[in-house]
Amino acid sequence: MKSAFFRTAKPYLLVLPFLCIMIFVFVGGLVQAVVQSLGYMPVFGMYEVSLRHYAALFSNARFLSSLRHTFYIAFVSSVLSVFFGVLIAFAIDKTKAGNKISYTLYKIPIVIPHIVVVILAIQIFFQTGIISRFAYNLGIIDSALDFPLLIFDRWGFGIMAVYLYKQVPFVTLTVFAVLRGLNKQYIKIAENLGASSFQILRQVTLPLLAPSILSAFLITFAFAFGAFEVPFLLGSPARLTLPILAYFDFRSPVLASRPAAMAVSVSISIISLSFILVYAQLLHLLSKRGIKGGFL
Predict the structure, then answer these.
(1) What would the pLDDT profile of 181-197 be if each residue is shown by its tens digit?
(2) Which of 36, 9, 72, 97 is nearest to 259 (CA)?
(3) Is 293 left (phi over 0), alpha (psi -120 to 50) or beta?
């Protein structure tokens, strides 16, 4: 009995030290951020506890602008990542002879750090980058200023390009792993019943892939929504995302700005947690509808 219990509990005991450290770091940091966002910072002689900093956020035009810009970048990059990732997953699944090669190639961008992709994006897409110089040598543009601003732009094209480079392979990996393990009998049954290729895709394949596609979308959205380094390095100073707004407020020499910065940080955490809850509810609904037959 003891040996069986030990074998069952052993994996959990092995990861317990790591879990304790991670819980202490993340939960402790989140608790401290919540406390400071309420205005309680005894170290700086601030003892007031109130929600006024949260209330002020939704009347702050700067915060609302950053919220819209952050949501826009996260949503557009996630939708495009899912679209292209699913297409590539289907293309790899249809490939026979080159399956191993294609299955290996799309994994390469996943292991490359974001900072390396940022440097590559600057070298390639900036107004003095490789594409701009190539266009100048061909006589397409007369100077570097004639090349469109794709980096540090107000619309976040450079940021989304980096996200797509990293997120499309992630979505492909997630969807293809499920697609490869699908029971092909469902497709054969649909074919025998006279279903067209589009009907099979809509009524059989996509419903079975819906949970993995949804999870990939929400993971990429949550990451893009809370990411700091890529918008900080490639974003426009005129359009700040929420993490950068919190960073600048936190670095402000005015201590009164510290609770507001923490309120922004906590708001990011609340929004990310909300998406996790939405994902859990949607996954539950998809599972119930899947049992009854069909998601779409």
Answers:
(1) 777 777 777 777 777 77
(2) 36
(3) left
Distance of CA 8 to the CA centre of its chain: 34
DSSP class of 155: T
Euclidean distance between CA atoms 182 and 211, whole angstroms: 13
CA distance 163 to 161: 5
Say which amino acid occupies 171.
Answer: V
Which CATH number among 1.10.600.10, 1.10.3720.10, 1.10.10.10, 3.40.50.300 corresponds to the domain 18-104+169-288?
1.10.3720.10
Contacts of residue 59, defined as CB under 8 A and 6 or more positions apart, other chains included, come to none
Q: What is the pLDDT of residues 142-191, one digit of tens each?
A: 887 788 888 888 888 889 999 999 899 999 888 888 888 777 777 777 77
Task: Give phi and psi for 161, each to the nearest 5.
Answer: -65, -40
Measured between alpha carbons, how far is 282 from 161 in angstroms, rounded to an integer?
A: 28
